[in-house]
Write a structure and sequence with these properties.
Elements (H helix, E strand, L loop, with lengths): L8 E5 L5 H11 L5 H10 L5 H4 L5 E5 L14 E9 L6 E9 L8 H15 L4 E6 L4 H10 L2 E2 L14 E6 L11
Bound molecules: coenzyme A.
């Protein structure tokens, strides 16, 4: 499902039972970004419905069976996730709603691998553009998406409501460098 992952990790589509497991890692993985208000924002961004109705376009990476004996990562431990979907409105578009990688596993290509898998899935459904957003404070996310080839917008004030400014990313998969997209 995901071709290149560090040893001891496997990927699969989300299931409903993953909801509490993913919610449980958000605060740590986002490093408390924007304090308690940020924590509430993040948890409200991932209601259970994503784990019911968007499972086939979303991914979870976790520790393999047999890795629990001191091996890293631990068996069954959530290592990364990507929640995305195909646009219901725009037949050319797909959307990555939320993505996260365990901080202990940053910089090993897991985020890129998740996006590659999503790009391939979007392409297989005839989608050309992938969109996503982040908060202006999340400079790491902006750097990551820019590195993957996304165009990064200027800050959009009140994009998600009063005081909820956002930066938007878009990538055109037709113009996308071959090394980033699974063919
Ligand atoms: C952003 C995030 C998903 C990146 O995951 P990752 O697995 O560490 O990223 P990768 O190892 O696949 O990196 C892919 C490329 O992006 C670059 N990159 C990743 N994080 C970066 C950062 N913080 N600053 C600059 N570049 C970065 C990598 O260097 C790599 O480029 P390279 O191929 O030239 O080496 C991860 O840092 C994360 O989960 N952050 C917290 C949650 C978050 O902010 N999510 C996104 C907003 S919803």
């Amino acid at each position: 499902m995901i071709d290149v992952l560090p040893g001891g990790l496997t990927a699969r589509h989300l299931v409903e039972g993953d909801h509490p497991r993913v919610l449980a890692v958000l605060d740590t993985w986002w490093g408390g970004l924007k304090g308690p208000a940020g924590a509430l924002e993040r948890s409200l961004l991932l209601p259970r419905l994503y784990f019911q109705h968007f499972t086939t376009t979303s991914f979870l990476v976790e520790g393999d069976e047999g890795q629990a004996d001191g091996g890293q990562p631990d068996e069954g431990k959530v290592a990364a996730f990507l929640v995305g979907f195909l646009s219901q409105t725009d037949p050319d578009a797909a959307y990555v709603h939320f993505v996260g990688v365990d901080p202990q596993l940053h910089g090993q290509g897991i985020g890129r691998a998740l996006y590659r898998a999503f790009f391939a899935l979007a392409r297989s459904h005839g989608r050309r553009y992938v969109h996503c957003i982040t908060s202006p404070q999340n400079t790491a996310s902006q750097a990551f998406h820019a590195r993957l080839g996304f165009t990064v917008s200027t800050m959009k004030p009140d994009y998600d409501g009063p005081g909820l400014d956002r930066v938007a990313f878009t990538i055109d998969l037709d113009a996308h460098p071959v090394h980033l997209a699974s063919e």
